[in-house]
Every structure is written in C-alpha cells, then in structure tokens.
Amino acid sequence: MRIGVMDSGVGGVTVLAEALRRLPGEDYVYFADTRNVPYGEKPKDEVRRFIFEGVERMLELDMKALVIACNTATSIAAAELRKTYDFPIIGMEPAVKPAVLKNETHEKRVLVCATSLTLKETKYKELVSAVDRKHIVDSLALPGLVELAERGMFEGSEAEAYLRQELSKLELANYGTAVLGCTHFPLFSQVFRKVLSPGTDIIDGAEGTVKHLASVLDREGLSGGGSGRVLFESSGCRETDLLVFQAALEQARSLIL
Ligand code: DGL
C-alpha cells in the first residue's frame, strides 16, 4: 500500500523528496490539485471542499497513510479529515516554535513566510501567541512564489526580483531565521539565501513532517513494503503537470542538505 502525499500543486514535492530520502522502503502517490491551485488566496470554504474532493480521489489509490504536504490545507482541514477517515493523517504547520526558541535570546527577529490563508487562520494566530512571548515574529504572504513554482520557474531573475521587492519592506538585518511555512517556498531556498541577510537561517517543515510520518508508521505497524515508487496524479492536465512535478522533484532533491 502507498503513502499519499497531497498539495494544492507542486509544493509538496519538498516533503516527498525528504520522504524518499528517509523512507525509501515505501511507495508513494502524489496528488497535485492543480485545477484549484493556489489554495492560499481563496476562501476557506472553497479550499475545504477542494481538499475533501482530493482525498476522496486518493482513496482509490490504495493508501495506508496520508501526508498533507501543505500548510494551508492542514490549517483548513486536518482536524476534520482526521474525524472522517480512519487512516493516519500527518499534517504540517510553520516551524514557528523552534525559530522563536533559537532567536529570542539573541535579540533577532523571526520572519514567517506562508500563504495569506495560513496566516489569517486562527490555528496560526494561536501558534504564534503560544510561543512568541517577546513579540519577535513577523509574517509575510508570498503568493507570487506559488505562482512561479507552478510554472516551473524555481530559479532565475523573476523569483529573485519578486522576493527582493517583497522583502524590501523589511529591515532584513534584524532577522535571525526565516521560516518557510508553505511547501512551495523551499523550491526557492537558493533565491531566499541570496536575498536575505547573510547568516539568516532558513527552516522548513519537511524534515519534521517526515520524522513524524516515520514514527506514526512504526507505531501503527504500517512501515515498509515498497521500494520508493511514485505514482503521480493531478486534477489538471496530467501531461503538463507531470513535467512540472518532475522538474520540481529534481529541484527539491538537489536542495536537500
Ligand atoms: N503549498 C501550500 C502550503 O504549504 C499552498 C500553496 C497554495 O496553494 O497557495 O501552504
């Protein structure tokens, strides 16, 4: 049986790449909801419906566990999905806590980059208020990066110009850590490195999510039985989507440290 990995589009490959590295003895099915991407700029109820439709479609593909490789979808639907389905569901959220712990004693700030919908949700606001005692967290939506990733444009001048423009509003030297709280963003980690102040760490949720997946599979006696095969499905034009998916997966694999 397979591990399902779902995202609004290609961003979830940043989690899939880590899963393939850490858990090569599993088979995967990746579902990209490319007909409905971006989730992050749409109304919550609409996104919730897309997510449930996507999961229903994945159920036909012999899944033993599901990774919601999307911070936005996790904040909108993870709790409800867990009530609806009886297989393990692993979600993800911006890695705010480790970033705050690392920076609060050094008087540096934390920049959380995510989608507008993630940042608007109560789940995120509660996460920040629980850990950000010194008010060092700033949040920034970067919808342009989702759009560029879906066009396969992970490098090059457009992404850099966009990021420079968006980050020009901030005093970059003040930040100790940038949290990439959208799975599309690590595809641009080289561009982030170029634009952020030297020495700023960049963290994302892929490693933690896959560690959590591994422990859940172990606990449930569901580990193994595969060989790193990946089946790709999308809700848009499969041929075009497959090409972007392959390029994104290659990019994500080359960027894993
Ligand atoms: N990859 C997604 C996330 O982690 C969402 C991108 C989008 O569809 O706006 O939040």
Outline the secondary-structure elements.
Layout (H helix, E strand, L loop, with lengths): L1 E6 L5 H10 L4 E6 L11 H16 L3 E6 L2 H14 L4 E2 L5 H8 L5 E6 L1 H5 L1 H10 L5 E5 L1 H8 L6 H11 L7 E6 L8 H7 L5 E4 L1 H14 L10 E5 L3 H18 L2
Parallel strand pairs: 1-2, 1-3, 2-9, 3-4, 5-6, 5-7, 7-8
Helix pairs in contact: 1-10, 1-11, 2-3, 8-9
Quick rundown:
The chain is an alpha/beta fold and 257 residues long. The chain has 11 helices and 9 strands. Bound molecules: D-glutamic acid.
Q: What percent of the residues sit in helical stretches (DSSP H or I)?
A: 40-55%
Gyration radius, rounded: 17 Å
The CATH architecture of the largest domain is 3-Layer(aba) Sandwich
Q: Output the number of helix runs.
A: 11
What ligands can be seen in this structure? Answer: D-glutamic acid
Return the domain count: 2
Describe the oligomeric state of these chains in a short phrase.
Answer: single chain
Largest sheet: 5 strands, parallel
Which CATH C-level class of the largest domain is it? Alpha Beta
- Beta-strand share of residues: 15-25%
Mean pLDDT: 96
- Weakly predicted, low-confidence segments: none
